[in-house]
Amino acid sequence: MCPVWVHRFAVVTAGATLVLIFVGALVTSTGSGLAVPDWPLSFGQVFPPMVGGVLFEHGHRLVAAFVGLLTVTLMVLLTQWEPRTWVRWLARGAVLAVLLQGALGGVTVLLRLPLVVSVTHACLAQAFLCMVVALAVCTAPGWQGRLADQGEPQQPALWVLATVTAGMVYLQLILGALMRHMGAGLAIPDFPLAFGRLVPPLDSAAVMVHFMHRLGALGVTLCVGWTFARILSRYRAERRLLRPALLLGGLVLLQLTLGALTIWTRRMVVPMTAHVAVGAAVLATTVVIALRAARLTAAPAAVSGQGWRDGVGAGPSGPFLSVQVTS
How confident is the model at residue 322 (pLDDT cuts 50, 70, 90)? Predict the structure, then answer.
């Protein structure tokens, strides 16, 4: 296993990525996406006057450059200190993702915010977050920890349920990005009803995307509730699962509240931006649970194989968001 300080650096990188997503959402919320019309410079300068929308757009570029630097540094550290081949390749993939993300950000500006590129930029940001979260949890000293009771009598297995939940959250974030960049955030102006009905008239693309996003929120809530109930009933004594499950439950409640506030306040900047950031935190937490469940509840036979000794296929026991650096 790599040194503890490398794990801590990975946690910092993941935390910085969450900050970057918040700052990126702030750019969209304030309509500052074209406040700086050129790229990679800003008005032909490295540091333009930070006023108005330039503060948000150029600030986003600076935070993105910082996260890129952290990611490259993390890859170098893991190349030097990490014995597991798959972890080193995951770090290289994260570097590739952050470079591609930067290029997409530039294309977004140069092509004047095309919908497809803007949505792809937002979706890749969430995928990159998943990669750095995985690096944070799999480098923790507690990675090799396992449950004494290996039985998993209920189906689907917890790791399958958590993985499905993470996939549902990611799809929901895609719908959210599409809705946001389409300008469909108020296509249905009331909540919890839709035009005073349970099902609105689906007479425009904006209304359909918005309503799908609401249905997606319901699906995510059900999946999270199922995962939370499984952990509470079966793994209550396992802190590495219980803690992120409690965090996940709180985040989902906060996210639903922020979604309602976004509509009720007519898309005010603070709730709209926080809604994006908390959505990313929900995704990160479900990834943590899925990886830990895969590691902690895997069949004993798998652990005795070479793949488990090398760390291949293992799930995490090191935490994220609630950091625990000792086993």
Answer: very low
Distance CA 10, CA 215 (A): 34
Residues 88 and 170 in one domain: no
Does some domain include residue 117?
yes
Query: Helices 4-29 and 115-138, interaxial angle, to 10°?
Result: 160
Q: Kindly state whether residues 86 and 156 are assigned to the same domain.
A: no
Quickly count: other Cβ atoms within 10 Å of residue 302's Cβ.
13
Model pLDDT for residues 105-116, shown as the tens digit of each residue? 999 999 999 999
Rg of the chain taking only CA atoms, in angstroms: 21
Q: Could you tell me if 131 and 155 lie in one domain?
A: no
Six token digits for residue 171? 């799809």
Write down the pTM of the prediction: 0.89
- Buried (b) or exposed (e) across 1-30, using 16+ Cβ within 10 A? bbeeebbebbbebbbbbbebbbbbbbbbbb
pLDDT, tens digit (0-9, with 9 covering 90-100), for 172-218: 999 999 999 999 999 999 999 999 999 999 999 999 999 999 999 99
Residues 284 and 131 sit within 8 Å (Cβ to Cβ): no
Question: What phi, psi does 43 have (nearest 5°)?
Answer: 55, 35
Residue where one domain finishes, among candidates 104, 121, 139:
139
User: Could you tell me if 181 and 297 lie in one domain?
Assistant: yes
79 and 155 share one domain: no
pLDDT at 152: 63
Backbone angles phi, psi at 69, to 5 degrees: -65, -45
Number of domains in the chain: 2
Domain end residue (candidates: 95, 120, 139) = 139
The answer to the question of residue 208 being in a domain is yes
- Each residue's pLDDT tens digit, 303-314: 433 333 344 333
Q: Could you report the per-residue pLDDT of 149-164, keeping only the tens digit for each?
A: 555 667 889 999 999 9
Beta bridge partners of 197: 194
Domain range enclosing 21: 1-139
Residue 78 lies in a domain: yes
